[in-house]
Structure formats: C-alpha cells, structure tokens
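Run HTH marR-type domain-containing protein through structure prediction, thanks.
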Amino acid sequence: MLTEKGEQIVDESHAVLETVNHGMLKDFTQEECNQMEHYFLRIVSNLEEMGVSPPEHLKRNHHK
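Sure, done. The structure for HTH marR-type domain-containing protein is below.
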C-alpha cells in the first residue's frame, strides 16, 4: 500500500513514460511497432535459452 505521495509519484511516472514512449515511436507505423515488439520477444527468448532470466514484465507476453 502506497502513501498518497507515493501514488502521486507513480501517476507522474506513468505520464512521463507515456510521453517518452510516444516521442520515441512517433514516426513508426503500428506494423513497425508490432514488428519491433516481436524482435524484443525473440531476444528475450534467446536470453532465456542462454540461462539469463529477464525481468518478469518481459516474460509475460513471451512467445517463440
């Protein structure tokens, strides 16, 4: 359970991350974004095969 200040920081962080993500991907089509995500998931899979355990949030949509 977070304090009110903690919840405010989380909300502000999400807003900043959304702005950064939008800015980084502004000239990419949806198809390109999907392709990039597919590449990242393949990288995660390769790392797992090497014995590296990526953070849980990278594993959740992981398909090979």
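The mean pLDDT is 88.
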